[in-house]
Specification:
The structure holds 2 protein chains of 2 kinds. By secondary structure, chain A is mainly α. Chain A is built from 22 helices and no strands. The longest helix of chain A is centred in the middle third of the chain and has 35 residues. Classes of the chains: A mainly alpha, B mainly alpha.
Chain lengths: 536, 53
């Protein structure tokens, strides 16, 4: 359990602020209308991002468990959705750790600007030693293998220490450190020559683009991927909150802090790109990139040329490491919590039994000469067809399927400072399914017709399509395994499932007249945790 | 920087950081409540207990 909401908020921001905030947002905003992007972005934050965050909070806080347990308690048929989310976390964690390992090495490389004049050649050549063959190989690259082992060691150690002593304490250290490092980085970037040209390119609004549906889709996509909603993290984190926690009050802080960091990243990254454009005498449009290209090719180039480049490099890669670590911890926590709930294990045992095999899979598959393509495919597919698909299924199940939204809204409103109106149900049941459905179908048609990144069909078939389909099948099978009597499923201190919204509402009305026979009022905020349920 | 870029930078910063400021203010105005069993323990023994999941 968290000791209070403050550490929860810090840990939740730590989870939301990840690599995507630093390397994805700046380019997405720049490509989609520049300054004009702020309008669809804010609309998406308020109509989908924060409402989805509240949905996760409501499920986790009311049903007090990792995704499989919380979903099972919500409705017996929903457990598979929870396992699907756990599977997605598993896949993301095994490759996400590798990027943190790269960033860790680049942190060290920054001191000597080891990449020299040719950052692109150094990254794929000397550093990753990328093979010409696209397949699954076991030709290890020690300079990635060693930092990767360290990353897993740190993550497993923190998670074994538990929620408060491990996750919360690490967030208390890492988050302020990340913010200070990043602020210094942004200030330094603003003093580089050409910085303001970069910012000009970033913020100049292209209002004509507002009529274009693609920038709205991009805004919803950015908000959705950036907030780490709908794949179980926030369900797990909010299950460790006190029953009387102000959920919406905390959620608004997390949502806006995540966006605040992103905007700061946009300023820092484009100030630096402005310098890069100025020093090579080209336009900002020619140097603007995102993702791995931005972090491991463009930034090293900037670091090599900028005055006090070493400081810039240390701050940039240090920020990537800390932003990535806090996110990775939250992703792995979902899997550990799920196993702990299902098998009734103690924390340390669950952390080791889950963490070590995951680390081995990650270490076996990715720090190799063929790891880059594998990382690329799994990342693209688990995001487009894992997270988006499970989010769509979850919102449809919560709204049309189990009619759970009125109950969850009531739960949130019972303890929260900002009360949710019916709008929230409209955003979750109406806006998000349409947007997620559109994004899913759009990427599906593109991938089917064009394949992925020119990679061989068998490779994309196995590690892309095969992987995302396997996640669904495995989730279904895991949901069929009975829960042991020692497991958390047999604890008696949670709310009744939402089997039928109308029946539940009537029952709630009778309960109020009879007094609380279930030991828990139908709304949230009961303190009777230790008490057994008094069944009539 | 062009005037429109400066305006949009200020608008974006105000909206996002302003939103964060308001959210923090709201949270400050609603102090954290402890659960009933913790409050009971404080009344009984004068010491709080750790919250339970």
């Amino acid at each position: 359990m968290w000791s209070g909401r403050r550490v929860f908020i810090l840990a939740a921001i730590g989870s939301a602020v990840g690599l995507g905030n630093i390397w994805r947002f700046p380019y997405v905003a720049y490509e989609n209308g520049g300054g004009a992007f702020i309008i669809p972005y804010l609309v998406a934050l308020l109509t989908a991002g924060i409402p989805l965050l509240f949905l996760d909070y409501a499920i986790g806080h009311r049903f007090r468990g990792s995704p499989p347990l919380a979903m099972r308690r919500l409705h017996p048929k929903a457990e598979a959705i929870g396992w699907w989310q756990v599977g997605i976390c598993f896949v993301i964690a095994v490759y996400y750790a590798v990027i943190i390992a790269w960033a860790g090495m680049y942190f060290i490389f920054s001191f000597t600007t080891a990449w020299g004049e040719d950052a692109a050649g150094f990254f794929t050549g000397e550093f990753l030693q990328v093979s010409d063959q696209v397949n699954l190989g076991f030709d290890f690259v020690p300079s990635v293998l060693i930092p990767l082992i360290l990353v897993w060691g740190v993550v497993i150690a923190i998670l074994a220490m538990g929620v408060q002593k491990g996750i919360a304490r690490s967030s208390i250290v890492f988050m302020p450190l990340l913010l200070i490092m990043f602020l210094i980085l942004v200030v330094q970037a603003l003093f580089l020559e050409g910085a303001w040209t970069g910012l000009d390119a970033f913020f100049t609004p292209d209002w004509t683009r507002l009529g274009d549906s693609s920038i709205w889709v991009a805004a919803y996509g950015q908000i959705f991927f950036s907030l780490s909603v709908a794949f179980g993290i926030m369900i797990t984190y909010s299950s460790y909150l006190r029953r009387k926690t102000d959920l919406t009050g905390s959620g608004f802080v997390v949502g806006f802090a995540n966006s605040g960091f992103e905007l700061l990243a946009g300023i820092g990254v484009f100030a630096a790109l402005g310098f890069m454009a100025a020093s090579s005498g080209v336009g900002v449009d020619e140097v603007a990139v995102s993702g791995i290209g931005l972090a491991f090719i463009a930034f090293p180039t900037i670091i090599a040329q900028a005055p006090a480049g070493v400081l810039l490099g240390v701050l940039f890669f240090g920020s990537l490491v800390f932003a990535g670590l806090t996110s990775l911890i939250s992703i792995v926590e979902v899997i550990i919590a799920a196993v702990q709930d299902k098998l009734g294990w103690l924390r340390v045992k669950a952390a080791l039994v889950v963490g070590i095999p995951m680390a081995l899979i990650s270490i076996l598959l990715f720090p190799t000469t063929t790891g880059l393509n594998l990382l690329d495919v799994t990342d693209a597919f688990v995001n487009s067809f894992g997270i988006v698909a499970v989010a769509l299924v979850a919102v449809v199940a919560m709204s049309a399927g189990f009619s759970a939204l009125p109950r969850l809204r009531e739960h949130i409103n019972a303890t929260s400072s900002v009360k949710l109106g019916r709008n929230w149900q409209i955003f979750i049941g109406g806006v998000t399914p349409v947007v997620l459905g559109y994004i899913l179908i759009d990427t599906l048609t593109t991938r089917i017709s064009e394949g992925y990144g020119g990679l061989p069909t068998w490779f994309v078939g196995v590690f892309g399509w095969g992987m995302v389909i396997a996640l669904v099948l495995i989730a279904y099978l895991l949901s069929k395994i009975p829960w042991s009597h020692r497991s958390a499923a047999y604890e008696k201190n949670v709310h009744e499932p939402i089997l039928d919204a109308e029946l539940d509402a009537n029952k709630s009305a009778t309960d109020k007249t009879k007094g609380s026979e279930t030991g828990l009022p139908e709304t949230a905020a009961s303190g009777s945790v230790a008490g057994e349920r008094k069944n009539p | 920087m062009s005037a429109s870029a400066i305006v949009m930078m200020i608008v974006a910063l105000l909206a996002v950081w302003g939103g964060l400021g308001l959210a923090l203010l709201n949270l400050k105005r609603h102090p954290e409540a402890i659960d009933d069993e913790e409050a009971d323990a404080v009344l009984r023994d004068g010491a709080s207990v750790t919250p339970v999941r």
